[in-house]
Input
Amino acid sequence: MPIQARLRTHVGLAVAAFSVMCAFHAAVHAASPAPDSVSLSESTIGWSTVKYASSADNGFISGSLDKHTVVDRTFRAHVLENRYLKVTLVPEFGGRILSIIYKPTGHEQLYRTEVGVPYGIKGGTFYYDWLMVYGGIFPTFPDAEHGKTWLKPWDFKVVKQSAGEVTVSMSLKDDFEYPAAPGRFRRGSTGIEATYFVTLKADRAALDARVVLKNPHDKALPYEYWTCTTLAPGSDPKNPKTTGGAEIIAPIKAYSTPKWSANLSDGDQSAGTGKSRFENLRYFRNWPTMGIAYAAPDMGGGNFWGVINHDNEEGIIRIADNTVTPGLKMWTWGFPSFTNETDARKDPTVALPYVELWAGVSDQFFHSADFPARGEVSIPETYSPTVGMSDVTDANENILINLAAEASAVTLQFFSLEPATPLRVTLKRGEAVLFNDTVTADPTNGNRISAAIPAGGNGDRIELTITTAEGKELIAAETKIK
Output
């Protein structure tokens, strides 16, 4: 029996009520879009900080801080761009991805501070005994708490450049030290070599990255590696910040906090043995103050996390093999950083509204991992914007989905990382087909499908498969009917 005929037999006209926000009824028959291409250009970007001075080995010079004087700085930037993304890299200050603008909405996905303010000076918390936040996404190693490379210049190279793909690299070797580092940090240098590859492909609405670490020694090394992300999806590019509608999206059930930030967990139920259920704290508005929360015991193999801004349902999601980076550290300055925000140039402050999520090779800061002799660690990552999604239940390098089912209907939200590729979406309950059609994703407004669930069907699970029009499977998932 043809699929469409069987569909009518089981669910009648109910399926006609499905909604696909991407308006696929017109898009499916539209002409293919013009070919996309990727460009790489060089530019400059301005940044401001309050006035301060540091020594040749990056120690903070006592008495140099002047918060009443703002100093303008200029960095060389490299810009990768296709039809969906404009990505700005700043190698000379921490080897960072500073900006990801999602062009269909015109919004920024990453946080960037307007005026940098040194803090934690002589507090024993950071490797150089001070820190200053700039923003973006950047590698940190070989120690905890931003490591020792966040302010260092990284070497920039073009690895591949064509109309279909641009890959660049930023690299640095840990062959330096700060003799006055607080005692909790490692002495000397590890010699670890780090290269951060960043790739943008034509027709791809996501940025692919890969961190490669090498231990050049004949002996194993204790080390830490964390990718730091400062996230502010759906922001004004001129004033990126996390808003009151921000939610941390992560497939974890529990978290733990250090004793000094235990007040973070006041709104969540205990999960036993020093852990709390990850419910209230996932919302930025429920962070009373600054603090640290760790996924407990770790990511448990979940392959994604990020932030969705529910004020406009835009998000940024990191997709990665989190068996390699099982640690998830969550940090904000607390919701008052949003409600009490000041004029950055007139009253610069460190407590600013962003959500900082970290991916680590260990479960917590100051818990070292072992780097095998002559070993190599490779950490592939994909950073995908989302639109029109209220949550993420499953993800891979092709598609992000939010799948939920109740007694009468199943709802699917999805974001395709290659929006121009026609898709076939199939939803089934047992052998009953609830939806089966070709869909062209809408990269601007998001994609939503709803289908009725007939009474008396076989099975209490809904199965989803999304393939290319030619039948290649892109993602498969299932959910229980509530």
Notes: The chain has two domains: 3-21+399-480, 39-387. Confidence is low (pLDDT under 50) at residues 1-31.
